[in-house]
Amino acid sequence: MRTDAHVEKFKRFDRLHSRLDPRADFELWYWMTLNAGTAIINAALHAAGVTREHDSFATQIPNIYSVPGADGTRHLEYVFGVDIIHVGMPKIEGPLPPAIAAMEIIEEFRDPCVREDRPITDEVVRACCDAYARCVAAAKSCVEA
Amino acid sequence: MIPELHRMKAQRIETSMEKLSDADYEAVIEGSMLAGSHWLNFACHRMELTGHSADVMHAEFLTGAQRVELSFRSAACNGSNRGLSGGFRSRRSACWRTGGGALPQTA
After folding, report:
1. Is the predicted ipTM greater than 0.85, yes or no?
2. How many CB pairs below 8 A link A and B?
């Protein structure tokens, strides 16, 4: 995807993130945290030259992307060095923005709290909120630099 | 995870989704994926296709064999001996939410 498109997605996810209740709506609130953070990190990675903009979007399988064809259809293709799905998926080479360290904290809660039965506590919400604030601040500083 | 916890998670996500509008289309898709995956796991566990410790992350990650077996078990739940007849989602409330019928054991 293009940097501008990542930033637009970030804004939409971030607005929704602030509308949802972190406790009552935890799963969807968390997913907006995850998506907003990943979107702004992709923008930051492109801005820092670590990954490149590309007219494709990620699938659930690392390194396989949906790519537009000349006739308007889309097909799957191996593409390297473009958008990440999650931090670490796919692994990327080169210097990483500090936002990724914050995002890794958020990712630690993904499966245990959304797909599994780890209790949603104030500590979990606080850890996600703190890491998200750090992630967004660090990523934005790369995008706006 | 046990089926009832999948049901609770799915229903919580569905309740949160009531706060969304069409303008939140990405979140509608994400919420549907998350809730749908919990319903899928609820069904797979109840039909004894998968164990409580073997959750499916995404429907697209099911193997071909699992898809065929799921189809037959879904059909059996509805009193048919024919699989691959479709209507997987529409049968959820009729069968799994209400407890369903006798289920075959995994081979």
Report:
1. yes
2. 52
